[in-house]
User: Which sequence fits this backbone?
């Protein structure tokens, strides 16, 4: 079984920083980055679980929900990952999004 603890830790750290960020930072793009990440992580999880189905897009629930959305999507992906390379790529995605978000 693949240890996905690094992914859940990275997602939790990003989510915690988003929750602590001022509203102005969220409005300047941090929430948009988080939503884009959540959508990508959710799509990856769906492709693993249902490879023949078209992934459904995570809805935009607003800037104050972005942290929760990346937490849910990241943990969903962590549950279905079996490939270490996919895990490494997911970690890169989280790190890159957090840098772009500036939190």
Assistant:
């Amino acid at each position: 079984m693949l240890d996905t603890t690094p992914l859940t830790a990275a997602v939790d750290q990003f989510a915690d920083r988003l929750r602590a960020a001022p509203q102005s930072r969220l409005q300047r793009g941090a929430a948009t980055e988080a939503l884009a990440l959540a959508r990508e992580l959710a799509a990856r999880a769906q492709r693993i679980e249902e490879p023949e189905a078209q992934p459904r897009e995570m809805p935009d629930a607003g800037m104050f929900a972005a942290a929760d959305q990346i937490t849910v999507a990241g943990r969903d992906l962590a549950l279905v990952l079996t490939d270490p390379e996919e895990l490494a790529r997911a970690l890169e995605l989280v790190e890159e999004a957090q840098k772009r978000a500036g939190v």
About this structure: The chain has one domain: 4-101. The chain has a mean pLDDT of 97. Helices lie at 5-20, 23-49, 66-80, 84-101.
